[in-house]
Write a structure and sequence with these properties.
With 104 residues, the protein is mostly helical. Helices cover 44% and strands 10% of the residues. The protein is built from four helices and two strands; from the N terminus they run ββαααα. The protein has a two-stranded antiparallel ribbon. A hairpin with a 6-residue loop joins strand 1 and strand 2. Helix 2 packs across helix 3.
């Protein structure tokens, strides 16, 4: 995988990064203003200190997770095709309540 070396603006160190990720960051990042409650922001600040990462980075990740979970098409269980797992490992006792619930 190709990588590039980028100098961090506020630090005097160099880090290898994925070129595609760098291009995405440079080209597709949009600066926004966001109003959040004080308790929520405080939680992000505490977590960022614990992880030694910027608060904005954690908020960006949270937004990306939200998009992935809420905005993408996901399969429903009804869309999945049944598969055979073979024969039963033990004899089936049809008198048990569990099996009655599974029958149509």
């Amino acid at each position: 995988m190709p990588s590039a070396v980028v100098k961090l603006l506020h630090f005097s160190c160099y880090i290898p990064i994925d070129t595609a990720a760098a291009a995405y960051t440079i080209v597709y990042m949009k600066t926004i203003s966001l109003n959040v409650s004080d308790p929520t922001y405080r939680l992000f600040q505490e977590e960022s200190e614990r992880r030694d990462r910027p608060t904005a980075e954690l908020i960006r990740e949270a937004m990306e997770d939200y998009v992935r979970l809420r905005f993408t098409d996901r399969l429903s269980l009804a869309d999945l095709k049944p598969i055979s797992l073979g024969k039963p490992l033990a004899p089936i006792d049809w008198s048990e309540d569990v099996f009655e619930e599974m029958l149509p």
